[in-house]
Amino acid sequence: MKAAYIVLTISGMALYAITACQSNAANNKEGKNKADTPTTEVLSETAMAVLNAPSTKAQQVELNGFYRDMVRGGFNGSMIVAKKGVIIFEQYHGLENYRNKNSAINDSSSFQLASVSKTFTAMGVLSLMEKGKLGLQDSVQKYYPQFPYKGITLQMLLSHRSGLPNYLYFCDSIWPDKDKFLTNEDVIQLMIKHRPRIQHAPGTHFQYCNTNYMLLGAIIEKVSGQKYAEFMQQTFFNPLGMTNTFVYDPSSAVRAHQTASHKYNGQLEPDTYFDGVFGDKGIYSTARDMLKWDQALYNGQLFSPETIKAAYTPYSHEKPGIRNYGLGWRLMVYPDSSEIVYHNGWWHGNNTVFNRIIKDTSTIIILGNKYNRNIYRAVKPVSAILGHGTEDGEE
Q: What is the mean pLDDT of the chain?
């Protein structure tokens, strides 16, 4: 589909009102955006209302000021703030790879999403559920009969209530070849053979654990008959026009504009043998592609309202407070029933924020490839600029 969007310039910043799948803009230099030639299609009434609102113009001024502070604090990455799917703020800063001074980050730069990848894995499972290919109350043994931990359902995996041990910890002592990339099947077979101790009885309480989503990634392959990467491409990335989004394969050549991971000081952070595992991490995407993902979850293009409601339902009630977890989504549920549906990520030097304020469909997307905890801390002040109170989200 041909791109259809209009470019406006306010306070020296290019702003995009999305009305269809966007094409890639040209590379930016030194954090400044260079936009494609705008089409003649008229902005929607919603986009015009958002961009012309005095409150938006005031927010843009504040966001520019806050962003300058982020850059001074070492930010290296991309940032988009949108209201009702309309981008009101978009900036890029730094390098895709510090070894290449000509690799300026731009709107085509793809970042390791880390745990934000779990949102795709979860919705992939729910897509298969809608097609009648699996059930959330299915046991893991339905797909792996020899799996030694009984009483764990797919819903428990999705909501982090399985009690399983984290493979990132137990594999260190039992994986013999640290120079060989682990696969999901390798981890599952290690669990069958060595039976590392479970953390708590299934279904008794929430405990965030990457093993849950490693298993779900493998189950997606068994049920769909496709490789996880192929399934994601056909189910989500292609239909939504997410042209710069892909599942990472550490044995393949680096793609164009695929960012490298860096430590806080700019040194490269190499892959480890865990980088062959997918489902809990491993998807690369851009800020603009993530906005397409965000908007698709509102418009009924992919899922029924009932499925979305199930994904955003809190499933853990052992502790009081607004924080909870749905099916692949962290939640903040407020007394007035308003919700913030989000996920953050951290893997190697990559820090990511995907924050969705459901009440007025505001979206905060921040992707970084140089370790910087300020990325998580940015959510609270940016939300305040948008007129919402919130707390910093977990990594």
A: 90
